[in-house]
Amino acid sequence: MTATRPCFTGDDQKAFEPAEKIGIVACTNPDGQPHVSLITSIMAPRPDQITLGEFCRGLSKQYIQQNPRIAFLIMTMDRRLWRGRARWTHLRREGPEYQRYNDIPMFRYNTYFGINTVHYLDLVETSVPEPLPMAGIVAGTLLTRLGKGAAATGRTDRILKPFAEGLFNRMGSLKFISYIGANGFPELVPVVQCQAADSRRLAFAPLAFGAELRRIEAGTKVAVFCLTMGMEDVLIRGTFRGFRRRRLVPLGIVDIEWVYNSMPPAHGQIYPEVPLEPVTEF
Predict the structure, then answer these.
(1) Terminus of the chain with fewer CB atoms < 10 Å: N or C?
(2) Alpha carbons 97 and 51: distance in angstroms, whole number
């Protein structure tokens, strides 16, 4: 990350108010592995606090109550990034923040659900806002596209479904990689240039955010979250194999081991496939 500070400024808090932004939260699952979710309801009601509004329940809200250390990333529509760390402290189902969330048109006029729970987290640190480095991302995307064919596994048995593989390879999709740092907090790094070499492997050239990406050690369990501006998303988890040259291009390689659909309303594991079970309780 760039320079950090212990509190948000008033301008930061105001920048987080619109519902139209990207909010990414990385946490730790019970097996000690990273989990990443899209939570656009992230806000900062106080300089030393963030809140998360819950309107549908996936795994992330459960995990942060079991292990309160998280990393977050906020990207506003003008492509400014804030990244930081926080600790979950408590939740409430009433109060001023609850009311504030449900007064936002996105939730107030939603036919099916509004915000039902507000999660509160104490800020540990935040970065100063930084622009998305488009020159490095574009160059990294082109180099990844050039070299990724040589990184393919060659196996025909699929892990990613064609739809999910297409998301990773779609121009304009956003990707973020996470792993658990030595201090127990998740690390969260943009890796927009990441693409699917095939349905079993991801690859990326370390141009944008290269110094942070090169800190990931080979053998580390990582999660990669892929998101489009149409709010289509998929989460994979796997093993980072380090950087290797493919067609003269240095590429980071992630072997995919687990795939999760985090899109509401039907969150669930896609790979390994979970057998269907009959409904016995109504």
Answers:
(1) C
(2) 8
Residue 8 burial (CB count, 10 A) = 22
Residue 101 has pLDDT above 70, yes or no: yes
Residue with tokens 């090169």: 214
Place of tokens 């309801």: 41
d(CA 124, CA 5): 9
Distances (CA, A) of 192 to 63, 159, 196, 255: 25, 21, 12, 17
Q: pTM for the full model?
A: 0.93
Place of tokens 């240095």: 250
Cα–Cα nearest to 263, from 119, 120, 167: 167
Residue with tokens 């808090």: 13
DSSP 185: S
Which of the pair, 243 or 275, is modelled with greater confidence?
243
The per-residue pLDDT for 111 is 44
* Beta carbons of 55 and 107 less than 8 angstroms apart: yes
CB 254 within 8 A of CB 213: no
- Mind listing the pLDDT tens digit for each residue in 49-67? 999 999 877 789 999 999 9
Residue 255 vs residues 37, 131, 205: alpha-carbon distances, Å: 20, 30, 15
The amino acid at residue 99 is: Q
Structure tokens that stand for 32 in this block: 């000690």
In this structure, the chain runs to a length of 282
Six token digits for residue 12: 């930061």
User: Is residue 106 classed as helix, strand or coil in its secondary structure?
Assistant: helix
CA distance 133 to 86: 25
The closest of 186, 229, 158, 190 to 87, measured between CA atoms, is 186
DSSP at 78: T
